[in-house]
UniProtKB/TrEMBL annotation:
UniProt region (Disordered), positions on chain: 853-912
Protein source organism: Propioniferax innocua
Family of this protein: Belongs to the ribonucleoside diphosphate reductase class-2 family.
Full protein name: Vitamin B12-dependent ribonucleotide reductase
E.C. numbers: 1.17.4.1
Principal EC category: oxidoreductase
Cofactor dependency: adenosylcob(III)alamin
Ribonucleotide reductase large subunit C-terminal domain segment(s): 148-683
Amino acid sequence: MTETSNQHDTRGLTIDRVFTTEGVHPYDEVTWELRDVVQTNWKTGEAVFEQRDVEFPGFWSMNATTIVTSKYFRGAVGTPQRETSLKQLIDRVAKKYRSTGEAEGYFATSEDAEIFEHELTWMLLHQVFSFNSPVWFNVGTESAQQVSACFILSVDDSMDSILNWYKEEGFIFKGGSGAGLNLSRIRSSKELLSSGGTASGPVSFMRGADASAGTIKSGGATRRAAKMVVLDVDHPDIEEFVETKAREEDKIRALRDAGFDMDLGGRDIASVQYQNANNSVRVTDEFMKAVEDGHEFGLRARMNNEVIEKVDARELFNKIAKAAWECADPGLQYDDTINDWHTNPETGRITASNPCSEYMSLDNSSCNLASLNLLKFLREDDTFDVHNFVKAVEIIITAMDISITFADFPTEAIAQTTRDYRQLGIGYANLGALLMATGHGYDSEGGRALAGAITSLMTGVAYRRSAELAGIVGTYNGYARNASAHQRVMRKHQAANDSLRTLSDFDTPIQQAATGEWDAVVRLGAEQGFRNAQASLLAPTGTIGFMMDCDTTGIEPDFSLVKFKKLVGGGSMQIVNQTIPRALANLGYTDETAEAIVEYIAEHGHVIDAPGLRTEHYEVFDCAMGARAIKPMGHVRMMAAVQPFLSGAISKTVNLPESATVEDIADVYLQGWKLGLKALAVYRDNCKVGQPLSDGKKKEAKKEADEPKVIIDHKPRRKRLPKTRPSSTTSFTVGGAEGYLTSGSYPDDGLGEVFLKLGKQGSTLAGVMDAFSIAISIALQYGVPLKTYVEKFTNMKFEPAGMTDDPDIRMAQSIIDYIFRRLALDYLTFEDRAELGIHTAAERRRYVETGSYIDESDNDREEVEGATAPAGKIQLSPGAVEDEPESEEPTTDEPTQRTASDAHTTAELLESLQGNTVDAPLCLTCGTKMRPSGSCYVCEGCGSTSGCS
């Protein structure tokens, strides 16, 4: 597939000095310190890693220090060859990029080359961006110079090709990367072989590949290999493929119930098949329209493309949704959308993706990635630094393109395609933190407009620099045959930018800059062509996100409002997300009110009923997990806002609650297609059995298993109220709507009935409320706890909503929200209400004045203290030294709100604060609970990931 590159100019790039100062090396501008990095598995106490006296800047967190030292420093620990300083790590990468760029004619002068090295060094040192992990593993070492984390393979309908697939995947997994491929060329089990027998079908060959992936651990580590398997929706074996992992999940449940160890990493889980891959169905517009219309859809033979079977499209689509509901697989990839944005259709179609679904390109290709830390471009005056953002993208794209020149690849076919098409994947992290800090809700029009503008600017600058590089070192080899298609896609990006509507003074300058960049892209591309077939995507940024000290990864919102932080010198502490005070200031809150809100968040982990916080600002602090988790379509809409400005796709899983239905998942998949996404994956909480239990849960389960079981047939019994019972009636107003709440209780206390009077007698509303009251009352008499209803119905949002006339509940999101808050205040214990964040006006006032919700003179109640540590700090382990010099040092005598001794990561901390289970595996390296990152999971303790990045 080698083609001749266009002739090019040899003028070279002139590099501006933006971040650095002439005559001063970036290392000389910061204060360095020596630290000890010690990692242990908290479950076993076993030392996982130890290296002392490593050199890092004082402003780097201990988490970033630990992850970089253990993951990226090269050389055997304890030998002179072992790297001991961040300077050594950055130098071996930056100097390699400079020397190759000079040798290949990228720079106009040696002075430009030096400025390029210094600018690159400064940005890496100050955590402005990071390359993907393989760059840190390999560049500048004596090992193969592999720079790509993402690979796409191909397999044909022959035994040689299938066996070669196994071999190529094995080498990629051994190198610590992941791969994806489409199996749709393999004939189905409903077709004949040339010998006359029946073909095995692609699902049977998946077994061998799955066993291989489970055996060859990535990079010699303990985590499983990362892989993606795709099958076209018109393949005759599509139903078997769809249901494959769901059937295995049934097997896991049966084996677990029989006493086998089916936890992730358990000794018996290896008996289950197909667990080492993400599965995706490649759907077409034709299929999705047939789903909408309820029509039949043809499944086609692989050898002659004839329709050999017709199925009900809607029924097949529902089977896909049902399987995803049961086990989170398969995801969807939208084929026509993907190929409509394809810059190289004359070379071949895009048929597959990498394991996390963000890289989509030609078969037998690879992509090297880099991600910007968006929060680094938020100035102190809370404006976005467009100029520096543009300059950063220019430097990064130049470096990424240089790396293809010297890079090594796992197969010759991948090497050839990558060198011919030079696919790049610039992206970003900390979008969620940036939105929160600037007062934008993640699921809001303003948040989506800002995200779209930044993404448009990033990709526009990337392609403009690609066109400039084409004029200096030549276009990519495959450009000539694809020039018309490539330019067409650039105009599509430009049109999407033109239709982007900004909503504030914050994002308008970003979009205006993007408009200028796309104008330059179209003009320069027509004149000079492009150096790179692809430029941008959004990766999960798991490990490198920690390296950059990012609060949020990839396109994700913040995981939670409280964080678990490791400290220099040992120990750990619980902190409140540091972007919250900045967000409150942007929203106009005084320092005193902001401090009270931060303290409330520290105690509860959410903002519901935070003193002084207006309900219309709640959305700014919505997170991926917790009491105000972002709704599934909020995630989908954010993806849709940025997708038109990306060459590739987005690594992201849309999380749904355990209560979500098959229809909910089907709707998410349908809306993803309508909104123009390229790929979509879902995860319903607790849908998978093979998740590790905590030690406590295992012991409890064992205890229950050891105890003799007595089977008793319980039938619910209704406890009716006596003829005469105490009751009270409360009149209320919510958003101007008036009503009456009458509640009756048992003589021995406890709510037993509720009557609601809303609207005129005989009206629809009055009838619905009567029925609702009867249903609630009967359920209460059958023993359903009031607390359960309060948990379910508070924060339900619909009109009428707004101000109330109740001094204890000043704002309500709906009448139902108000009613159950009032019932909670009247009938629940203080402890139960405190768990739900529901307090009287007097309690909230006392908390602001004294730091306690309870009058200290009241000896009948156990005092629940507020956070009295400095804002953002909750608990400090003994002997710890804080690594943020601007923060006041707490002492061990200082009163603390809550101990974090039982938590080891943010995921565990969130569980302890809010009682919600975070559905994520335990890290097989250090034993802590991981947290979601894009389509993968990442460990805060050691930086391990479950994906390819």
